[in-house]
Amino acid sequence: MNHHQPDLDTSPEVSDEIRKTTCYMCACRCGINVHMKDGKVKYIEGNRDHPINKGVLCAKGSAGIMQHYSPARLRAPMKRVGERGEGKFEEISWDEAFDIAAKRLGPIREKAPHKLAFFTGRDQSQSLTSFWAQQFGTPNYAAHGGFCSVNMAAAGIYTMGGAFWEFGVPDWDRTKMFMIFGVAEDHDSNPIKMGLSKLKERGAKIVGVNPIRTGYNAIADEWVGITPGTDGLFVLAMIHVLLKAGKVDLDYLMRYTNAPMLVNMDETSNEFGLLLRDLQGQFMVQDRVTGKPAAFDKKGVKPVFSGEITYQGTKYTPVFQLMTEKYLSDDYAPEAVADRCGISAETIHRLAAELAHVAFEQEITIDQPWTDWKGEKHETMTGRPVSFHAMRGISAHSNGFQTCRAIHLLQIILGSVEVPGGYRFKPPYPKPVEGHPTPHSSTTPGGPLNGPHLGFTRGPEDLALNASGTPVRIDKAFTWENPMSSHGMMHMVISNAHAGDPYKIDTLFMYMANMSWNSSMNSRGVMDMLTDKDENGDYVIPNIIYSDAYSSEMVAFADLILPDTTYLERHDCISLLDRPISEADAVCDSIRWPVVEPDRDVRGFQSALIQLGSKLGLPGFVNEDGSAKYADYADYIVNHERRPGVGPLAGFRNKDGSGKGRGEPNPEQLNKYIENGGFWKDHIPDEALFFKPWNKAYQDWAVERGIFDKPSPYLFSIYVEPMQKFRLAAMGKGELQPPDHLRAQLIEAMDPLPVWWAPYEEQGVDCEEYPLHALTQRPAAMYHSWGSQNAWLRQIHGTNPLYVSGEVWTKHRFNEGDWAYVTSHHGKIKVPVVRMDALNPNTVWTWNAIGKRKGAWALGENAPEATKGFLLNHLIHELLPPKGDGLRWSNSDPITGQAAWYDLRVKVEKAPTEDGVSQPETPAQASPVGQGPKDIAYGGEF
Ligand code: SF4
Fold it and tell me: For a designed S-S bond to 195, which of 172, 425, 736, 912 qualifies (C-beta 3.0 to 4.6 A apart)?
């Protein structure tokens, strides 16, 4: 009998070429190896040499192939032929598209540049888009930060020159106790997973503070199921316990923070609450030896931390004394806040004690000498191995800025920032407020804006207000209502433009921002605003230009579509001028490049923007003779210089590729990046690895690399003095005065020391009528709204039930398969419900951006995303319920304007199950790309 082995090829050739680029399936920017076969993408794996992910790839990253071959991809520029919102378009050429755009935008620029509102989503190219808007001359530019996590970023910068996530990272190799607050799996994916696995290997304790126990919170050693919006109170209670026990790092506070600085305590003074400075502008402390004020950095001065001193007739008190008085108050005792936070007083005491134990009993010392910026030499580097991470669950509340500040204060009093085992910054951070611009908003018809749009206000003089006190910007950022709105307020643009408040605009130009659906509060209302017509039959928002790679919901509302490429077909740079891919040990940046040429008539948005810029003759985009300065984004990336020798990419500068951070443009730069795996990395010298804000070696190295132009050491701001300047104005001091109705809010909110107040929606609705908190998260398998049309990923999350706690489930007698009405002060929806016990008992939640409008994303009309999927956005309004003062206040943080998505209060009731369709049902939009095939399989062609 013959036995024949089957003729199997056990090692088939899976690819004939590997192209290394950067993932864009979420914002983590991992390195990927794209395997090509016969010129097509065959599969994607992680790049093992890459600093961010070291070969790790997540579900989203591997599913990039389905993103690239998605049937929902737009194919050519289009102009609207139906009514807005219908989704009917005619394909046109790029020449015609640019002609239409330029004919509209050219005259605006010459006469009234503010009539262009240019806002972009999560696009990772803000250094280009902001530069373009500045050259156009409109004050109306921002990216998506105002509705995402500006509270986190701004609170971090104002407090310690950097925040979480893209700004820094825990010392994963040394930290022994790690606390996360409000962290879902969408922001910070592979890097945090890799870090958590290191902690697990070493047996470090992970504490997850989150109303919902999914993802990282599910693998935490301890889950604290906090009541939404009370994190600040919880953290301040831990600070109370630590102060009471004397468990604070006084040496750290003395050396590296403004804790000993003297604060003017004379309420009659125009400088009340401001810090005492000498004639050279240097901060002053009370010297322990002489008892007199002295410059804090004068040799031999040892500051006093408490008491009061009279100097030149005025009383002063150290910041530390104000801080201890405030937080030792019984109001912050664990017993006083426990019920409110949904955490027992015993747990608060215990967690504070654990933090103190790890920080002070298990300190780490590294045998590495270093020198501080005053020239003092230190033989070792000593650190406190507790670290923290927080994200949007903290940020997206109306008390988010101060809550983020409270977390930073906790880190700082424990002495655990920029030390071994603690939280560490990633270049170009740390960078204090002084290293950032102030906001600019002064326009000149036909000319550029007077400076960068976004920045950090230092006082009322930096607000974007006209002489009459009206807002300069369409989103009303940098006004008395939200003086520190450092990322703008994209979520207010459409409603303000529709209302003509503060003025009417002509063109709304947006990129990669699904504003008619999951990226807006009050989605139905926004759709109505985008389609509303005036008495002449003209659209109230006259002209909408939109760029997207896919047939999203927002596409249907545009008059002109500029089709973007997928992330595998484009050039991009993840730049030090924006938020790069650096690690705490190294400065790094990276690129994307077209590993596949587009097979459609599409262009990378950044290239299209550059080409439109040169057609409009914008300075910075044309040569002296009017010719185009850059052919496309690749050309711009290589040749644009923001400062002499400093451009979008820091690596391989100079003609020979030797320049690191600084150097003349190198025509071969992109090829060098491609040869190097798509990224560039330069290790920080060992003596500069910690204490970066105060480390001479780091400061000198950062200047060499073009991060700063001169050493910029600074102190952490426990006490944020610029906030007091707004408060002083609200107290009637100074020339620039807020409107009377905002004085009380400014005095409460702009406290220079972190405080907590109840979320505004909670203060404005009847909490007995709306007893539940309602939240959303993005899942680990999806980040952008485009994830739920990805053929692989939608098999993981095709629908999104409302998860309710066991208590709510029992109370309403829900059964498996039931539906519920969910009602807020603004709206009512009908949704499927599922029981989840690992949940704060007074909270319901769902995955965001799974629900889709029929006809969008090339999905079938009966796709589960469009029939069972839903959005909580229908329940949220950009304004709070009327308060009785005749005004409708913004549903946002009063400091930064951050959208308060997670303040939402609702009630649930059992609903009939028979039709099994979620409500509200939005009429279908026509699909300019048709409908995707029923089955998608790789056959060389998708
Ligand atoms: S974590 Fe984000 S960037 Fe990294 S592979 Fe996954 S989707 Fe891509």
Answer: 172
Does the CB atom of residue 57 touch ligand 1 within 6 A? Answer: yes
User: Which tokens sit at 116?
Assistant: 């262009």
Query: If you ran DSSP here, which 8-state letter would residue 499 be given?
Result: H
**Is 292 strand, coil or helix?**
coil
3 state DSSP class of 339: helix
In a 3-state reduction of DSSP, which class is residue 907? strand
- Asked whether the whole model's pTM tops 0.90, one would answer yes
Report strand pairing: 802-804 vs 828-835. Answer: parallel
Helix, strand or coil for residue 509? strand
- Give the Cα separation of 721 and 363 in Å (integer): 31
Crossing angle of the two packed helices 400-413 and 150-160, in degrees rounded to 10: 40
CA 6 – CA 551 distance, rounded (Å): 47
Q: If 0-12 CB within 10 Å is exposed, 13-18 middle and 19+ buried, where does residue 654 land?
A: middle
Percentage above 70 pLDDT, the chain: 99
**How many other β-carbons are positioned within 10 Å of the β-carbon of residue 886?**
7
Helical (H) or strand (E) element with 42: strand 40-46
Gap between the Cα atoms of 418 and 249, Å rounded: 14
Q: 761-774 burial, b for 16+ CB within 10 Å, e for fewer?
A: bbebbeeeebebbb
Q: Would you state the pLDDT for residue 915?
A: 86
Model confidence pLDDT, tens digit, residues 727-763: 999 999 999 999 999 999 999 999 999 999 999 999 9
Sign for the pseudo-dihedral over CA of 884, 502, 455, 186: positive
Which amino acid makes up residue 487? Answer: H
The DSSP call for residue 435 is G
What letters, b where the CB count within 10 A reaches 16 and e where it falls short, cover 780-818? bbbbbbbbbbbbbbbebbebbbbbbbeebbeeeebeeeb
Report whether 590 contacts 582 (CB < 8 A).
Answer: no
Q: What is the mean pLDDT of residues 392-400?
A: 95
Pocket probe for ligand 1: among 33, 189, 192, 568, the residue whose CB has the most ligand atoms within 8 Å is: 189
Indicate which residue's Cα is closest to atom 2 of ligand 1: 26
54 Cα: distance to centroid of ligand 1 (angstroms): 12
CB neighbourhood size of 733 (10 A): 18
Ligand 1: distance of its center to the CA of 877 in Å? 32
**753 alpha-carbon distance from chain centroid:** 23
Neighbours of 329 (CB within 10 A): 12
Give the dihedral of Cα atoms 264, 268, 270, 274; nearest 10 deg: 20
Is residue 212 within 8 Å of 902, Cβ to Cβ? Answer: no
> What confidence category does residue 887 fall into, taking pLDDT thresholds of 50, 70 and 90?
confident
- Cα radius of gyration (the chain): 27
pLDDT tens for 827-871 read 999 999 999 999 999 999 999 999 999 999 999 989 999 999 999
50 Cβ closer than 6 Å to some ligand 1 atom: no
**Are 897 and 474 spatial neighbours (Cβ–Cβ below 8 Å)?**
no
For the CA of 57, the closest atom of ligand 1 is 5
Q: Are 482 and 745 in contact (CB under 8 A)?
A: no
Is any ligand 1 atom within 6 A of the Cβ of residue 793? Answer: no
